[in-house]
Amino acid sequence: MFGYLKYRDVILTLTKYEFKQRYRGTVFGVAWSLVVPFLMALVLYAIFSQLLHRTEYRILYLIVGIFFYRYFSMGTSIGLNAVTGKAHLVTKTTIPREILPLTTTLAYGLSSFIEMVILLPGIIHFGGDISYFFLLVLLHPIYVLLVFGLNLSLSAIEVYFRDLKEIWSVVTQLMFFMLPIIYPIDIIPVNLLPYYMLNPLVRLLNAYRDVMIYGKLPDLFDMIYVLLVTFGILLIGHAIFKKLEKGFVERL
Hints:
Elements: H1 8-22, H2 31-47, H3 49-52, H4 58-79, H5 87-92, H6 99-118, H7 120-125, H8 136-160, H9 164-178, H10 193-196, H11 200-212, H12 220-244, H13 248-251
């Protein structure tokens, strides 16, 4: 199933290419990735300040949530085009096709990690506790694997169903409100909370905030749950990708 991981040189080369392409033609590079989320945070803070006043480290709570969501939104929105956007590599080379969504996921995952590390001075300035910030190097790969599992399914389905891009844009917008970004979890009705917590991104976002601003170890049960769901998403993604890739060349 994971035989394509043997192509380390190809994976590294394509990941570097994807990473550079994201900032190609820009003067300030990764700095632009910070400007938009910060402006968005300012607007949302002004609008939803009453909700955020119920949280600790209000502005940090919001900023970490936005940067966390940003990787899900951009990583999957670009990732679903990983195969159709590189049709020439599918039709003219023999590299394993799984490498295409993998390198896109890795490139945007690296960009996301850099953005979050750059937040460190601001977190310190606003009084966040960074005692366990180093655990981000363990949390983020889990997030990358989760997004990769989604991208395997999305990129394969998109070859056959090109309207998926429009549908997924709606899904990512809905996910912004389905995650505790602009509100605290305690506003969720008690009877709905167990269903709300089924979303692994909710638990993973809590873990990010724990290590980035609260100085706490992530909840062990939450992390076990996220790992199990991530593994399941990866298995399903691989199964869908392998089943559908037989028709890639004809469809492209």
